Amino acid sequence: MTTTAITNIAGLVTNDPALGDGSPLGLIENAAVVIDGETVAWVGPADKAPAADERFDARGRAVIPGFVDSHSHLVFAGDRTAEFNARMSGRSYSAGGIRTTVAATRAATDAELEANLLRHLDEARRQGTTTFETKSGYGLTVADEARALRIAAAHTEEVTYLGAHIVSPDYAEDPAGYVDLVTGEMLTACAPYARWVDVFCEKGAFDGDQARAILTAGAAAGLIPRVHANQLSYGPGVQLAVELEAASADHCTHLTDADVDALAQAADTTVATLLPGAEFSTRAQWPDARRLIDAGATVALSTDCNPGSSYTSSMPFCIALAVRDMRMTPDEALWSATAGGARALRRSDVGVVTPGARADLALLDAPSHVHLAYRPGVPLVSAVWQRGVRTV
Fold first, then answer.
1. Average pLDDT of span 177-187
2. Do the beta carbons of residue 276 and residue 325 sit within 8 Å?
3. pTM value?
4. Which of 252-280 are b and which e, b meaning 16 or more Cβ less than 10 Å from the residue's Cβ?
5. What gap in Å lies between CA 146 and CA 159, rounded to an integer?
6. pLDDT at 92
7. How many Å from the N-terminal Cα to the C-terminal Cα in the chain?
8. What is the distance between the alpha carbons of residues 132 and 148, in angstroms, rounded to a whole number?
9. pLDDT tens-digit readout, 328-385
C-alpha cells in the first residue's frame, strides 16, 4: 500500500489536544502527516516524519481536517430563485415554500436527481467537505422518499429519512393520516436505506406530539433521531431532541434558557447544529452560538444546503458567518465545522487528523486556518484528500 507524506505544513489542525498545543484544535506548527492507504498513519513535527513512498510539499500552508457537513438536503430538482428574489424584496420565509421543490422533485427522473446530487457533492468537495449527511424530504410519497434515499445511499453513509419535512400536499386536509403514513408504510420502505430519522418540528410542519410519534417510530425501526428544532419560533423541538437522545438538534435559532440548559446537560449526546446559511438567506435572527458554547453545549456548523432557505454548499462561508454574526472565534468555528460535525454524526473517524482516522484533509492556500474567516469568499481550499486519495 502506498504511503504519502504531506510535509512543510505551517499549521496543522488535528482536533486532538494530546497531539498538538493542548487547545481543542490540537495545532501543530511546522508539521507533517503521513497517509497509509485510506487512513492517517502518523502526525507530528516535520523534522521527525518517517519515510514515505511519496512526498507532497505543503509549502508553508495550513492543513485542516476535511469539513464534516452534518445537515444538507441534496436530493432535489429545480430551484427557487423567484422565491429568493421575492424574499430579498421583503417577503418573509415560511415552511410552505418546500412544496415548490416537492413538485419539481416528483417530476424528475432518477438520473436527473442523481446528477444534481453529484454536482452539489463535487461543488462541496472543491470547498473542502469530505463527509456529508443528506436527507430525503422532497418527495413525500412512499416511492419518492424511498428513491431519494436509495440515490443518496449510493454516495454517502450518512442518509436521513425526512418524510416528515412538511405534511404532504396530498394530505393537506388529513395531517394525522400523513403521520400514519410516515410512521408506517413509508418508514418500512425507507428504513433500509437510512441511518437517521428526522422531523421538522415547527409551526407549519409538525407539532411536538406528531414529532414524538415520528421519531419514536423511526427509532423502533433502528434509525437514530435528529430534529429540525426551533428554527422559526420557540417550540418543543430542542427539549424533544434531548429527551429522545437525538444525535442533534438542528437550527436552534430561538432558544429559551431552559433549552440552552438542556443542550448543555446533554452535550455528550445531543449536538446543537447551527446553520447560518439559513439565517443569511432568509434575513432571520442569528443563532447565538456564544450563548450555547459558554453554557457548555456541543456546537456543530453545517450548510443546510437546500434550494429554498440556504442554497450554499460552502462550509468556509458558514465559518465566516459564524465568526462575524454568531460570536464564535475562528478556532471555535473551525472545530464546529469539523469535529463538531463528526460529533453530530456520532463519528470518531472523521473531523480529526490523528493516527487511525480516515485520511480526509484539506490544504488551504494560506498559512493559518484563521484565514477561513479572515478572507471570506476567497476560494482558499487548494487540495483535498478523501480516504487518502487526492480528489481536488
1. 98
2. yes
3. 0.96
4. bbbbeeebbebbbebbebbbbbbbbbbbb
5. 11
6. 74
7. 21
8. 15
9. 999 999 999 999 999 999 999 999 999 999 999 999 999 999 999 999 999 999 999 9
Q: Which of 17, 131, 155, 11 is nearest to 67 (CA)?
A: 131
Written as nine digits, the cell of 227 is 430534529
Of the candidates 315, 357, 334, 349, the residue with the CA atom closest to the CA atom of residue 64: 334
Average pLDDT on 4-29 reads: 97
**169/158 Cα distance (integer angstroms):** 27
Amino acid at site 248:
S
How many residues appear in the chain? 392
Radius of gyration from C-alpha coordinates of the chain = 20
DSSP letter string over 170-196? GGTT-HHHHHHHHHTHHHHHHGGG-SE
**Which class for 302: exposed (0-12), middle (13-18), buried (19 or more C-beta within 10 A)?**
buried
Rounded CA separation 258/254 (Å): 11
The C-alpha atoms of residue 225 and residue 230 are separated, in whole angstroms, by 16
By the 8 A CB rule, do 239 and 229 touch?
no
- Grid look-up 418508514 returns 187
pLDDT over 60 (residue 278): yes
What is the C-alpha to C-alpha distance for residues 152 and 112, in angstroms, rounded to an integer? 13
pLDDT value, residue 210: 98
- Residue pair 160/196 in contact by the 8 Å Cβ criterion: yes
Q: Which three cell numbers stand for residue 280?
A: 443569511
The candidate with the shortest Cα–Cα distance to 169, out of 181, 178, 180, 182, is 178
**Pairing outcome for strands 227-229 and 299-301:** unpaired
Amino acid at 102: V
Distance between CA atoms of residues 304 and 72, nearest Å: 4
Sign of CA dihedral 40, 305, 175, 209: positive
Dist. CA 364–CA 60, nearest whole Å:
10
Determine contact, residues 185/221, Cβ cutoff 8 Å. no
Tell me whether residue 376 is exposed, middle or buried, using C-beta atoms within 10 angstroms of its C-beta: 0 to 12, 13 to 18, 19 or more: middle
For CA atoms 102, 120, 314, 160, give the dihedral sign.
positive
Taking the CB of residue 329, how many other CB atoms lie within 10 A of it? Answer: 15
